[in-house]
Design goal:
The complex is a heterotrimer of chains A (131), B (142) and C (169).
Chain A: H1 2-12, H2 14-32, H3 36-55, H4 79-109, H5 114-126
Helix pairs in contact in A: 2-3, 3-4
Chain B: H1 5-27, H2 36-54, H3 56-62, H4 65-88, H5 103-141
Helix pairs in contact in B: 1-2, 2-3, 2-5, 4-5
Chain C: H1 2-13, H2 17-37, H3 41-66, H4 78-95, H5 107-110, H6 113-123, H7 129-137, H8 139-160
Helix pairs in contact in C: 1-2, 2-3, 7-8
The chains are: A mainly alpha (131), B mainly alpha (142), C mainly alpha (169).
């Protein structure tokens, strides 16, 4: 009996598991890859997994898109759609700013690998505070 | 890419339709999926497409930089202006139902102007960012 | 959705940055498809336009400006893997308490939304509920968001502007 309810819970939580996998993958890219552009892409993956996390509970099976019409009575929940719409646009704005920073870093340090940048900074500090 | 015949022809065919689609999405945001953000992004994508095929100088002639910069700011001002109009006509900030004797028509008007403001800002910002990125590379080559 | 997981795995393993950027465009398109399946048509249109269009163009532009070769081969990432797995475990434990998929009695469906859906005809009379909520019921949020977009544009201009006199590059 508990086995049946557990498997039903697992089946209905499949979207949550995919969301968690994407979130963990994005986090892994951000903290473990030294290339700055790849970090930004990992951040983007993390953000899209959060969108899925909000939109998945809003769907009602048998409902339809939230556009009022006389032919349908059951609608999916429109409130998360509004929040996520804002989040997507803010996400791309953040990505643009991050990329502008990466371009400037590249021009200043001539590399976009995080380890090289840190090494260059500590070398500059060791050779007497000239930057 | 200006010399590639196929790309030029396809671009000339597609770009008017993309612009038309952006306007359609903007104004039918009330009745179907769409609205200000999508329309702004599609508009910016059409101009970026033109810039990719015909070169940055031609794109700058069609959509000059001062226009893009003012579009960025004017959109936000339109949005705030609708709010101030609500204030001046007697309601709270960003109240739409005071904009017209019939409150439902007032809502329609308010939503229309707000979406126009949002689309203007979004398309201006996306285009400006693209111009900045493309410009940075060009100056290095001179 | 499994295809999204597969493409993310390939993004993690791959080293060639150009391929990674193209894969992220594919990932955004798959995400838009999943969103349509979840009845979120406005969000899907925005995600397809923004994620697969603008995002890919900006990443390619930045890659061209950085002129970076492939990423360096990473050291064995044991600690990040451990941290990610433990975060994942905690998240799985958290989601077991969430309501079932498509449960009409979940709190998200009960509190504010019936008022929006039912009173929309009298108050606003705009069929697209998402646009009405975005522009009218939650108009302040959209004002803030427009300001954020404008600020991002101003920030990029401030970072990447060239002076006309000879600056050191």
């Amino acid at each position: 009996m508990t086995g049946a309810t557990t498997s039903m819970t697992l089946g209905s939580h499949f979207t949550y598991f995919i969301t968690i996998f994407l979130m963990v993958a994005g986090l892994f890219i951000v903290i473990s890859r030294p290339n700055l552009i790849k970090k930004l892409i990992g951040l983007g993956i993390f953000q899209t997994s959060v969108y899925l996390l909000y939109i998945a509970p809003a769907k009602l099976i048998g409902g339809t898109a939230p556009i009022l019409s006389n032919a349908f009575t059951v609608y999916s929940n429109p409130l998360p759609h509004v929040l996520i719409l804002t989040a997507i646009v803010v996400g791309v704005a953040t990505l643009a700013l991050g990329l502008a920073l990466v371009v400037r870093i590249r021009e200043a340090y001539d590399t976009i690998e995080e380890d090289d940048i840190l090494a260059r900074d500590s070398n500059a500090e060791d050779n007497g505070n000239a930057t | 890419m200006k010399n590639d015949l196929i790309l030029r022809v396809i671009a000339k065919l597609l770009i008017p339709f993309i612009l038309l689609f952006a306007l359609y999405v903007q104004f039918h945001g009330d009745f179907g999926p769409g609205g200000g953000f999508q329309a702004g992004v599609i508009l910016a994508a059409a101009v970026i497409f033109y810039a990719l095929i015909y070169g940055l100088a031609d794109a700058r002639k069609v959509v000059p930089e001062p226009l893009v910069e003012s579009m960025m700011a004017i959109g936000v001002l339109i949005y705030a202006g609708v709010g101030v109009a609500g204030l001046l006509l007697g309601g709270n900030y960003l109240d739409y139902f005071v904009l017209d004797p019939n409150p439902v028509r007032g809502q329609h008007r308010g939503i229309f102007w707000v979406e126009v403001g949002v689309a203007t800002t979004v398309s201006g910002v996306m285009l400006k960012i693209f111009y900045m990125f493309a410009d940075r590379g060009k100056v290095d080559e001179e | 959705m499994s295809m999204m997981a597969v493409s993310v795995l390939v993004i993690i393993r791959s080293r060639n940055l150009f391929g990674v950027i193209v894969l992220s465009g594919i990932y955004s398109f798959l995400m838009a498809t999943v969103l349509v399946a979840m009845d979120a048509v406005d969000v899907a249109m925005t995600e397809a336009a923004v994620g697969a269009g603008i995002s890919t163009v900006l990443l390619l532009g930045a890659l061209y400006l950085c002129k970076s070769e492939e990423a360096h081969p990473p050291k064995k990432p044991f600690l990040p893997l451990l941290v990610s797995m433990s975060v994942g475990g905690m998240l799985v434990y958290g989601t077991l308490g969430l309501p079932e998929f498509s449960d009409p009695q979940a709190p998200i469906h009960v509190h504010v939304v019936p008022r929006y859906l039912n009173e929309m005809k009298q108050e606003v009379d705009v069929p697209n509920v998402v646009t009405a909520v975005l522009a009218s019921y939650r108009g302040f949020d959209t004002l803030g968001e427009t300001t954020v977009v404008f600020t991002a544009g101003a920030g990029v201009v401030a970072l990447l502007r060239r002076r006309r006199k000879g600056r050191k590059p």
